[in-house]
Amino acid sequence: MSQIDSIINILFNIYFYMILFYVLMSWLPNVRDNFIGELLGKLVEPYLTPFRKIIPPLFGTIDFSPVVALLVLELAVNGLRSVLFYLMG
Fold this sequence. Notes:
Belongs to the YggT family. By secondary structure, this protein is mainly alpha-helical.
């Protein structure tokens, strides 16, 4: 069980920091246009897009959807851990 939990934790942390780095890249002009920005966009945007459709930007520019997306990701990971703990003991 601890090995599976470690793998889940590592994958969660990687995706969490990918989203965080992608959001921080939006503050700098033209950073998303390089290879890393495009790669992160391809990996992160499919997850962020549904949240952006539901949650409109505040004041036209401030986007809180990544915060909600990260909270939902955290809840999903905790739920997965609970299910695995229940099934595997």
